[in-house]
Amino acid sequence: MNKTYEKYYVPAQSPWPIVGAVALFLIAFGAGTFVNEVTKQQPGFGGYMLAAGFVVLIVMLFGWFKNVIDESMSGLYSAQMDRSFRQGMSWFILSEVMFFMAFFGALFYGRVIALDWLSGGSNNAMTFEILWPSFEAMWPLLKTPGGIETQAMPATGLPLINTAILVISSITLHFAHTGLEQQKRGQLKLMLLITLLLGATFLSLQVYEYIHAYRDLGLTLASGFYGNTFFLLTGFHGMHVTLGAIILLFVFLRVLKGHFTPEKHFAFQAAAWYWHFVDVVWLCLYVFVYVI
Amino acid sequence: MSAVVNDHEHDHEHHDHKPSGIKRWLYTTNHKDIGTMYLVFALVMFFIGGAMAMVIRAELFQPGMQFVEPNFFNQMTTVHGLIMVFGAVMPAFTGLANWMIPMMIGAPDMALPRMNNWSFWILPFAFLILLMSLFMPGGGPSFGWTFYAPLSTTYSGDSTALFVFSVHIMGISSIMGAINVIVTIFNLRAPGMTWMKMPLFVWTWLITAFLLIMVMPVLAGVVTMVLTDKYFGTSFFDAVGGGDPVLFQHIFWFFGHPEVYIMILPAFGIVSAIVPTFARKPLFGYASMVYATSSIALLSFLVWAHHMFTTGMPVAGALFFMYCTMLIAVPTGVKVFNWVATMWRGAMTFEVPMMFALAFIVLFTIGGFSGLMLAITPADFQYHDTYFVVAHFHYVLVTGAVFSIIAAVYYWLPKWTGHMYDETLGQWHFWCSLISVNLLFFPMHFVGLAGMPRRIPDYALQFADFNAFISIGGFLFGASQLIFVWVLVKCARGGEKATAQVWEGAEGLEWQVASPAPYHTFDTPPVIK
């Protein structure tokens, strides 16, 4: 028997995974039904099912994380376990990167190839003549082949401010991390709080920007390829910021309770990685959606 | 609930603390329980998807419309494909990974045991949604498993949203499963289990897990675009708004091509385990196998547009994708060469796992060759969307992936149950499957080359004889799998006691623990020389 080896903690039975599976079932089935009901304006149960799914999911997350935090705080986790969590989180972030890649890929394809072909590029001269001879390729696509018009979202002003806010929030989060590592709990709390407030500001400004786009610019989800990529990329990014902020909020609450040590703070680390990832996505998004 | 699972005993004297009743399965964190659930689920899905194939073959037995409406026929082809890919083959491989990888690398369990259970339990719900959608007004998804726009956007039914969300949660399940496998392999190897000592099944699964993490999110992205195009007025795949249906194909196949390697790389690992055992020789060219697997995985990201030659692309693009595709034949050839070289002058015996592995090598190679034919752009213009393509991918997926899974089940079944399976019945299963599967898929090459299109419920008269033949092969193949269930049930209930090593030539950590494997193996890591 190798006594020097730290035992790998294998949790005993847990009800949370099956609760989580039920939650995802309610969400998927509810959303699949709800989408049809909303677009056809029929009454139905889909919305309730979807809402119930989210409630169950939140209950599951609370229960599951409570277990994990209790186990962690009672010292059941070895350094090897910590590595499992870290590696798991890193691979999860890679999968998130690939999710955004699908939408960035669509954006590049649309701009470089689809619009060129629609205006007669490559060997599509006849298609162009027959389908939409008056179509002009441009980016942002302000007038679709079908004739829907919109205005472009400028890169300066609010989006630039939002970029600054997110970059600063990444920096403050970094200082929160150094505060944690150097046992400066005051700096940790303050910097984490500032990060959270910056995140909330970013999200509020995004909401304001969406209202501005819909009301003043005529830029909507349905206004052609430019609107599609604009709203799906910024929308999914916004959802990720929301999720990241919720995670940071819980990390903040744990910090207030005195959790985390300079050596062991996986949850903090994971939340920070996630936040920095979301920040990098925004920088790419700002360049490719707003600027270029 | 947070009791530490640790017995300071050696595996042999280890007492199994199995929780009992339904809660054991619902709440489990045990990789063996979860592996079993994955495998049983995959088997059930295999029969449901197979029943749909029987409907397809019954309708195609004769020309003309006999049994089902065209729309229902399309739902059958669509859901058959989705179930077999996402519900049968992938979960079966994940089940094998769950059972075997921790035992092969000397780990106490998977790295993230609770998440492991979550990954599994999402699947039954996802497929429940997919199957329920068949009973909706207007029917289930009918646009083919590839759900090309605009079939899935402009022309699809109300069930599309359910399809999209069920694919979303299947994807969540796959990604979590893949993260678990990859972290287990990176972090839980026993001391001394260096990278180049890992069994090839572990290596191939490591690379498969990487592919899953890279491409399942892209699938999630493309189904999301289908959803917004259909319901929320976007026009990603509609030229009227500046989008392009070809964009759909690019994103889909960027996922889709690595996906087919996700369904075959673990099979390579299985065959690389079985052939040395029954040839009683170490695997020939271990390192080259690792490099070949990695090369195939890398190339899989560069070949997606070979599914789209007839869609149209610039000549430079067609050439690039053609050459990259053909390049895949090189590492694949290395593998086939190595398996054959392993058998060269081996002391071979031909138990059922070996028979299926041998059939795999021959028949998968046939599927590989027809793939090479399809890779040639000008030739593809003739083959595209014909039964030749159907023949090709069924050779690689049925006689490839499915045969490897069956081989793996026979190979490890004594380790799982502690009993030897019935060798006579197993041989019956093998020979019935082998003959019927070739009756079923080989003539498809001919009707395809003669021009019979795929996904059509009716066909021209000249294809009648071949199709009757194919259908008979199909029914026989379906019936042959009942023997498999018989063998499994019989083996689970009893039989000759299996030794720890089970097979005379078997090597590896999984053969050093007792049969059946104790509920918890390697609480403390074994020493690897």
UniProtKB/TrEMBL annotation, chain A:
InterPro entries: Cyt_c/ubiquinol_Oxase_su3, Cyt_c_oxase_su3_dom, Cyt_c_oxidase-like_su3, Cyt_c_oxidase_su3-like_sf, Cyt_c_oxidase_su3_a-hlx
Alphabetical list of CDD domains matching this protein: Cyt_c_Oxidase_III (cd01665)
Residue intervals passing through the bilayer: 16-35, 47-69, 89-110, 155-176, 188-211, 231-253, 273-291
Enzyme Commission number(s) from the entry: 7.1.1.9
Chief location of this protein within or outside the cell: membrane
Keyword Hydrolase: no
Location within or outside the cell: Cell membrane; Membrane
Membrane topology: Multi-pass membrane protein
Every Heme-copper oxidase subunit III family profile domain range: 4-292
Pfam families in alphabetical order: COX3 (PF00510)
Keywords: Membrane, Translocase, Transmembrane, Transmembrane helix
Family designation: Belongs to the cytochrome c oxidase subunit 3 family.
Classification via PANTHER family: CYTOCHROME C OXIDASE SUBUNIT 3 (PTHR11403:SF7), CYTOCHROME C OXIDASE SUBUNIT III (PTHR11403)
Name listed for the protein in its UniProt record: cytochrome-c oxidase
Originating species: Rheinheimera muenzenbergensis
